[in-house]
Amino acid sequence: MTPEEREPRYKVDIRVDCATRDMFVSNRMMNISRGGFFIETNLPLHSEVDLVFRVPESGLPILAKGCVLWNCDMKKGSTRLVAGSGIKFTEMEPRHRQILESCLAALAQRSPPPDQTQTVWETLRAALPGPN
Predict the structure, then answer these.
(1) Higher pLDDT among residues 80 and 56, named by residue
(2) Model confidence over 81-119: pLDDT tens digits?
(3) Beta bridge partners of 32
(4) Could you give all domains of the chain from N- to C-terminal order, each with its CATH number?
């Protein structure tokens, strides 16, 4: 996927409850897009996750299902990246999708999404010591 094809991502600080088959985690969502979000915790890779979160614009709960696509686990002391998981939305009822879309529209009006030309791997490579 090219940077032009990616959904715009917006910085947020939203509490999200995540339940896999084996664990429950409540932590904060750091960014969100139409397709998914980044949570500041490591979840098992490729696990299915039941999600509940409330967007500030409505306060209404959004229930969804997701899949953990990637994890980033930097060593302590790193100031460039935060450990966490990238989760893709896989299921969401139309009424909950509508709430999310309204939230994203409000975020887009307040502040445009950050430049997305740098991929996750480029960000990781830049954070590692040594020649890049």
Answers:
(1) 56
(2) 678 899 999 999 999 999 999 999 998 888 765 555 445
(3) 10, 37
(4) 10-100+108-127 (2.40.10.220)
Q: How far apart are CA 121 and CA 95, in angstroms?
A: 34
Q: What is the bridge-based pairing of β-strands 84-92 and 48-54?
A: unpaired
Q: Taking the model in full, what pTM does it have? A: 0.77
The position carrying tokens 């009822």 is 93
Amino acid of residue 27: N
The token duo for 89 is: 């939305």
Dihedral in degrees, nearest 10, Cα atoms 74, 107, 53, 66: -60
**pLDDT recorded at residue 75:** 55
3-state secondary structure 5-56: CCCCCEEEEEEEEEECCCCEEEEEEEEECCCEEEECCCCCCCCEEEEEEECC
pLDDT tens digits, 12-22? 999 999 999 99
C-alpha 106/C-alpha 59 separation (Å) is 14
The answer for residues whose C-beta is within 8 angstroms of residue 33's C-beta and 6 or more apart is 6, 7, 8, 9, 10, 104
